[in-house]
Protein backbone atom coordinates (compact mmCIF):
# COMPACT_ATOMS: atom_id res chain seq x y z
CA UNK A 1 0.00 0.00 0.00
CA UNK A 2 2.91 2.34 0.79
CA UNK A 3 4.01 2.25 -2.86
CA UNK A 4 0.59 2.27 -4.47
CA UNK A 5 -1.31 5.03 -2.68
CA UNK A 6 -0.29 7.68 -5.21
CA UNK A 7 -1.36 5.41 -8.08
CA UNK A 8 -4.77 4.97 -6.51
CA UNK A 9 -4.98 8.71 -5.85
CA UNK A 10 -4.06 9.55 -9.44
CA UNK A 11 -6.63 7.11 -10.82
CA UNK A 12 -9.37 8.42 -8.53
CA UNK A 13 -8.61 12.04 -9.43
CA UNK A 14 -8.66 11.35 -13.17
CA UNK A 15 -11.94 9.43 -12.90
CA UNK A 16 -13.34 12.27 -10.81
CA UNK A 17 -12.15 14.74 -13.46
CA UNK A 18 -13.84 12.82 -16.25
CA UNK A 19 -17.16 12.59 -14.40
CA UNK A 20 -17.26 16.00 -12.71
CA UNK A 21 -15.78 17.70 -15.75
CA UNK A 22 -18.73 16.60 -17.85
CA UNK A 23 -21.52 16.88 -15.29
CA UNK A 24 -20.77 19.94 -13.16
CA UNK A 25 -21.84 23.34 -14.40
CA UNK A 26 -19.40 25.78 -16.00
CA UNK A 27 -19.60 29.55 -16.56
CA UNK A 28 -20.84 30.59 -19.99
CA UNK A 29 -18.02 32.74 -21.32
CA UNK A 30 -18.02 34.40 -24.72
CA UNK A 31 -16.79 32.12 -27.54
CA UNK A 32 -15.74 29.36 -25.11
CA UNK A 33 -19.17 28.28 -23.84
CA UNK A 34 -19.22 24.51 -23.13
CA UNK A 35 -15.81 23.96 -24.73
CA UNK A 36 -14.24 25.39 -21.59
CA UNK A 37 -14.60 21.89 -20.11
CA UNK A 38 -11.56 20.94 -22.17
CA UNK A 39 -9.54 23.01 -19.70
CA UNK A 40 -9.67 19.97 -17.39
CA UNK A 41 -7.80 17.88 -19.94
CA UNK A 42 -5.80 20.13 -22.27
CA UNK A 43 -3.86 22.16 -19.68
CA UNK A 44 -3.13 19.28 -17.22
CA UNK A 45 -1.63 17.29 -20.12
CA UNK A 46 0.97 20.03 -20.55
CA UNK A 47 1.65 20.14 -16.83
CA UNK A 48 2.24 16.38 -16.83
CA UNK A 49 4.56 16.72 -19.83
CA UNK A 50 6.61 19.47 -18.18
CA UNK A 51 6.97 17.46 -14.96
CA UNK A 52 8.14 14.41 -16.93
CA UNK A 53 10.64 16.44 -18.94
CA UNK A 54 11.87 17.94 -15.66
CA UNK A 55 12.45 14.41 -14.33
CA UNK A 56 14.29 13.59 -17.54
CA UNK A 57 16.69 16.53 -17.37
CA UNK A 58 17.35 15.75 -13.69
CA UNK A 59 18.45 12.21 -14.52
CA UNK A 60 20.42 13.41 -17.53
CA UNK A 61 22.42 15.74 -15.28
CA UNK A 62 22.82 12.96 -12.75
CA UNK A 63 23.94 10.44 -15.37
CA UNK A 64 26.80 12.71 -16.46
CA UNK A 65 28.29 12.51 -12.98
CA UNK A 66 27.37 8.94 -12.03
CA UNK A 67 27.83 7.33 -15.48
CA UNK A 68 24.94 5.11 -14.43
CA UNK A 69 22.91 3.35 -17.12
CA UNK A 70 19.98 3.31 -14.70
CA UNK A 71 19.91 7.11 -14.69
CA UNK A 72 20.20 7.11 -18.48
CA UNK A 73 17.23 4.73 -18.79
CA UNK A 74 15.17 6.89 -16.42
CA UNK A 75 16.01 9.97 -18.49
CA UNK A 76 14.91 8.47 -21.79
CA UNK A 77 11.79 6.77 -20.44
CA UNK A 78 10.57 9.97 -18.81
CA UNK A 79 11.00 11.65 -22.20
CA UNK A 80 8.99 8.86 -23.85
CA UNK A 81 6.19 9.33 -21.33
CA UNK A 82 6.39 13.11 -21.62
CA UNK A 83 6.03 12.99 -25.39
CA UNK A 84 2.83 10.97 -25.01
CA UNK A 85 1.29 13.69 -22.86
CA UNK A 86 2.67 16.42 -25.11
CA UNK A 87 0.99 14.87 -28.15
CA UNK A 88 -2.24 14.52 -26.16
CA UNK A 89 -1.92 18.19 -25.27
CA UNK A 90 -1.58 19.10 -28.94
CA UNK A 91 -4.54 16.92 -29.93
CA UNK A 92 -6.87 18.25 -27.22
CA UNK A 93 -5.76 21.77 -28.09
CA UNK A 94 -6.45 21.24 -31.78
CA UNK A 95 -9.94 19.91 -31.03
CA UNK A 96 -10.59 22.90 -28.77
CA UNK A 97 -9.34 25.25 -31.48
CA UNK A 98 -11.71 23.73 -34.04
CA UNK A 99 -14.74 24.67 -31.95
CA UNK A 100 -13.54 28.11 -30.85
CA UNK A 101 -11.30 29.38 -33.67
CA UNK A 102 -12.89 27.50 -36.57
CA UNK A 103 -9.98 25.24 -37.53
CA UNK A 104 -7.79 22.58 -35.94
CA UNK A 105 -4.53 24.38 -36.68
CA UNK A 106 -4.47 28.13 -37.20
CA UNK A 107 -0.68 28.46 -36.97
CA UNK A 108 -1.13 30.35 -33.73
CA UNK A 109 2.31 31.11 -32.19
CA UNK A 110 1.56 29.04 -29.12
CA UNK A 111 0.48 26.08 -31.23
CA UNK A 112 3.57 26.36 -33.40
CA UNK A 113 6.01 26.71 -30.51
CA UNK A 114 4.34 23.84 -28.63
CA UNK A 115 4.76 21.60 -31.68
CA UNK A 116 8.41 22.64 -32.01
CA UNK A 117 9.02 21.81 -28.35
CA UNK A 118 7.67 18.30 -28.93
CA UNK A 119 9.86 17.93 -32.02
CA UNK A 120 12.88 18.83 -29.88
CA UNK A 121 12.29 15.71 -27.83
CA UNK A 122 11.56 13.54 -30.86
CA UNK A 123 14.97 14.68 -32.06
CA UNK A 124 16.39 13.54 -28.71
CA UNK A 125 15.07 10.02 -29.33
CA UNK A 126 16.36 10.04 -32.92
CA UNK A 127 19.79 11.14 -31.66
CA UNK A 128 19.88 8.24 -29.21
CA UNK A 129 18.95 5.72 -31.89
CA UNK A 130 21.72 7.04 -34.14
CA UNK A 131 24.47 6.21 -31.62
CA UNK A 132 25.34 2.56 -30.96
CA UNK A 133 27.99 2.84 -28.24
CA UNK A 134 26.21 2.95 -24.87
CA UNK A 135 28.41 5.36 -22.91
CA UNK A 136 28.73 7.74 -25.84
CA UNK A 137 24.97 7.65 -26.44
CA UNK A 138 24.23 8.34 -22.78
CA UNK A 139 26.67 11.27 -22.60
CA UNK A 140 25.70 13.00 -25.86
CA UNK A 141 21.96 12.57 -25.32
CA UNK A 142 22.26 13.85 -21.74
CA UNK A 143 24.02 17.00 -22.94
CA UNK A 144 21.37 17.49 -25.63
CA UNK A 145 18.60 17.03 -23.04
CA UNK A 146 20.13 19.62 -20.73
CA UNK A 147 19.97 22.20 -23.55
CA UNK A 148 16.56 21.04 -24.82
CA UNK A 149 14.78 21.64 -21.52
CA UNK A 150 15.42 25.42 -21.23
CA UNK A 151 14.63 25.73 -24.94
CA UNK A 152 11.29 24.05 -24.29
CA UNK A 153 10.59 26.49 -21.45
CA UNK A 154 11.37 29.46 -23.72
CA UNK A 155 9.20 28.06 -26.52
CA UNK A 156 6.21 27.45 -24.25
CA UNK A 157 6.33 30.38 -21.85
CA UNK A 158 8.47 33.21 -23.26
CA UNK A 159 8.19 33.48 -27.05
CA UNK A 160 4.37 33.15 -27.23
CA UNK A 161 4.04 36.21 -24.98
CA UNK A 162 6.00 38.29 -27.49
CA UNK A 163 3.57 37.53 -30.31
CA UNK A 164 -0.12 38.17 -30.93
CA UNK A 165 -2.03 35.01 -30.15
CA UNK A 166 -5.54 33.63 -30.03
CA UNK A 167 -4.74 31.90 -26.75
CA UNK A 168 -6.08 33.44 -23.51
CA UNK A 169 -3.54 35.74 -21.90
CA UNK A 170 -1.67 36.49 -25.14
CA UNK A 171 -1.91 39.26 -27.71
CA UNK A 172 -4.35 41.31 -25.67
CA UNK A 173 -6.75 38.41 -25.11
CA UNK A 174 -7.87 38.12 -21.48
CA UNK A 175 -6.44 35.14 -19.60
CA UNK A 176 -8.31 32.88 -17.27
CA UNK A 177 -6.98 34.91 -14.35
CA UNK A 178 -8.89 37.88 -15.73
CA UNK A 179 -12.03 35.77 -15.86
CA UNK A 180 -11.33 34.65 -12.27
CA UNK A 181 -11.65 30.88 -12.61
CA UNK A 182 -15.09 29.89 -11.37
CA UNK A 183 -15.13 28.12 -7.99
CA UNK A 184 -16.93 25.16 -9.57
CA UNK A 185 -14.13 24.86 -12.10
CA UNK A 186 -11.46 25.07 -9.42
CA UNK A 187 -13.04 22.01 -7.79
CA UNK A 188 -12.20 20.05 -10.94
CA UNK A 189 -9.21 21.84 -12.48
CA UNK A 190 -6.78 21.54 -9.56
CA UNK A 191 -7.52 17.84 -8.89
CA UNK A 192 -7.24 17.27 -12.65
CA UNK A 193 -3.73 18.76 -12.73
CA UNK A 194 -2.55 16.59 -9.84
CA UNK A 195 -4.29 13.50 -11.19
CA UNK A 196 -2.80 13.71 -14.68
CA UNK A 197 0.66 14.42 -13.27
CA UNK A 198 0.44 11.30 -11.09
CA UNK A 199 -0.81 9.22 -14.02
CA UNK A 200 2.04 10.57 -16.13
CA UNK A 201 4.56 9.57 -13.47
CA UNK A 202 2.93 6.14 -13.28
CA UNK A 203 3.33 5.70 -17.04
CA UNK A 204 6.99 6.65 -16.68
CA UNK A 205 7.60 4.06 -13.92
CA UNK A 206 5.92 1.35 -16.00
CA UNK A 207 8.10 2.19 -18.99
CA UNK A 208 11.20 2.14 -16.79
CA UNK A 209 10.35 -1.31 -15.43
CA UNK A 210 9.69 -2.65 -18.92
CA UNK A 211 13.01 -1.29 -20.17
CA UNK A 212 14.76 -2.80 -17.13
CA UNK A 213 13.27 -6.22 -17.87
CA UNK A 214 14.29 -5.97 -21.53
CA UNK A 215 17.83 -5.03 -20.54
CA UNK A 216 18.14 -7.96 -18.14
CA UNK A 217 16.62 -10.39 -20.65
CA UNK A 218 18.66 -9.34 -23.66
CA UNK A 219 22.04 -8.95 -21.94
CA UNK A 220 22.16 -10.96 -18.70
CA UNK A 221 25.59 -9.67 -17.65
CA UNK A 222 24.47 -6.07 -18.03
CA UNK A 223 22.19 -6.21 -15.04
CA UNK A 224 24.84 -7.69 -12.79
CA UNK A 225 27.49 -5.20 -13.87
CA UNK A 226 25.46 -1.99 -13.93
CA UNK A 227 22.99 -2.54 -11.12
CA UNK A 228 19.83 -2.67 -13.22
CA UNK A 229 19.05 -6.20 -12.10
CA UNK A 230 19.59 -5.32 -8.42
CA UNK A 231 17.41 -2.23 -8.74
CA UNK A 232 14.56 -4.14 -10.36
CA UNK A 233 14.78 -7.17 -8.06
CA UNK A 234 14.82 -4.93 -4.97
CA UNK A 235 11.59 -3.29 -6.07
CA UNK A 236 10.02 -6.67 -6.80
CA UNK A 237 11.06 -8.12 -3.44
CA UNK A 238 9.79 -5.06 -1.60
CA UNK A 239 6.42 -5.31 -3.35
CA UNK A 240 6.19 -9.03 -2.56
CA UNK A 241 7.06 -8.40 1.10
CA UNK A 242 4.38 -5.73 1.41
CA UNK A 243 1.78 -8.04 -0.17
CA UNK A 244 2.70 -10.87 2.20
CA UNK A 245 2.39 -8.58 5.21
CA UNK A 246 -1.05 -7.46 4.08
CA UNK A 247 -2.17 -11.08 3.64
CA UNK A 248 -0.97 -12.05 7.14
CA UNK A 249 -2.70 -9.03 8.65
Assembly status: single chain
Briefly note the structural class of the backbone.
mainly alpha
Q: Figure out the total of helices.
A: 9
Q: CA-to-CA gap between the ends?
A: 13 Å
Descriptive overview:
This protein has 249 residues and is mainly α. It has one domain (5-248). Helix content is 78%, strand content 0%. It is built from 9 helices and no strands. It has helices spanning 5-23, 39-66, 69-100, 109-129, 134-158, 176-179, 183-218, 220-226, 228-248.
Give a brief description.
The protein has one domain (5-248). 78% of the residues lie in helices and 0% in strands.
Core attributes:
249 residues, 0% strand, mainly alpha, globular
Write the layout of secondary structure elements.
Elements: H1 5-23, H2 39-66, H3 69-100, H4 109-129, H5 134-158, H6 176-179, H7 183-218, H8 220-226, H9 228-248
Helix pairs in contact: 1-7, 2-3, 2-5, 2-7, 3-4, 3-7, 4-5, 7-8
Amino acid sequence: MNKTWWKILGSVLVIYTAIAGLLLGVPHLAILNETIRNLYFHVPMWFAMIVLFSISVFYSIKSLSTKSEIDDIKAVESVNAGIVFGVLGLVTGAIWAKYTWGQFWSFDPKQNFAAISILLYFAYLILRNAIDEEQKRAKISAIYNIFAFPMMVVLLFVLPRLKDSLHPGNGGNPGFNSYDLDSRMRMVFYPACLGWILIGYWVYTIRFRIRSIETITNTPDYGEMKGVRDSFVTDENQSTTNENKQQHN
